[in-house]
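Moderator note: this is an archived Q&A kept for reference. The question asked for a predicted structure of one protein chain; the sequence and the answer are reproduced below.
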Amino acid sequence: MTAAQVLTAAQMRAAEQALFDAGTSVSALMETAAGGAAEWIRRVAAGRSVTVLCGPGNNGGDGYVIARVLREAGNAVTVIAPLAPATDAAREAKARWDGPVGTSGAAAGEVFVDCLFGSGLTRPLVAEHALLLRDLAARHRLRVAVDVPSGIATDTGAVLNERLPVFDLTLALGAWKFAHWSLPGRLHMGQMRLVPIGIAPVEGAAQMIGRPQIAAPAADSHKYRRGLLGIVGGAMPGASLLAAAAAQHGGAGYVKLLAPHADPRTPPDVVTDTAPLAEALGDTRLAAVLVGPGLGRDEAARTALTEALHRARALVIDADALMLLTPALIPESTPLLATPHDGELETLCRSFGVIAEGRRARALAVARVSGMVVLAKGPDTCIAAPDGRLALAPPAPSWLSVAGTGDVLAGIAASRMAGGADPFTAACEAVWLHSEAARRAGPAFTPSQLAERVADALAACL
């Protein structure tokens, strides 16, 4: 699958330094970055007037370059800078602008460009800068932020000031930052576009989840080669039936419910194995097992989880099973994928002695201490591996916020693992397929309708 990297502010500085060490000057890199941003702004402006707010650092320097390029393209441009340039590159960019620079927010135009502080900000804007930003944004019909909107923390997406403007377009320079894909800051950014500047791949960088590349079954495939998935049933069989439907549409060759009794709602194309769970899990053809959806939390559920952990060749742990999981139950070498929502992730943190703030930090810490891949689901889903790999999901349709969609996600992930994917790859594929199925399902879908659209999402990856 294709993946774009997501960098912290420190990683971005190091990546830029690598370009400087290779002979690129700061001013030359600024011309490349700001020139790329200016082309986007020129298209958005479509000949209309532009106001550029410049700060004292290199983000402000980008603003002076953008202003110059737009002026050369024929746009009427006003530059406002409450502070003088404080870096050599920004001073050079201002000198090349060679035009008037105001200090107040009296200007009114049609397109506003925020180059006040951008990437690297960790503390709130001072009151006069926040007021200037809000005032200018309010005076313009369209708003564009360059790199990261001023007042948004680069590495967390935290909103550092009250009443920050909402932008129509944010232009990320060189690489995505965590703020671009993190709530609540993401809500201020509007459409987002990446402006390449020649940044090389950074070792250890987080990755965006992109469209998977999934191959159709080989000509000589059969149901076991495509993957036999076992889904452990429990007290609430409806959840496991949802997971089974999603797994069937997610590519598994054979989906089997492992339950003490057949449920009359089970469709004819899903087999129920009513043998004792230990015996059913002993089937060597089982490529992967899903445990948790509808499992319950009583002693029978705890026993079922223990059996699955000890006997499965690969295991997805979801829902109730996550609430019962303890470090003592974790096997040494079984590939494991956990799929918690925030409440379940908090329980895992308590169970594994993790102290961390935020979904990403918690997922990484739990993955590291448990040996599981952790798919931490929510409005800004992330996937963490024990070796420190981190993948971020683009925004998914908010219609997914309905009971049962987590069971669908678990079924897709288990299906991908049954087909041979490792837990991290299966999680990334499942998140993308889940989101794409939701887009295709339209508004106000049921979990069953979502599961039905997984096959359409899968077809988009072939």
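Archived answer notes: The two ends are 11 Å apart (CA to CA).
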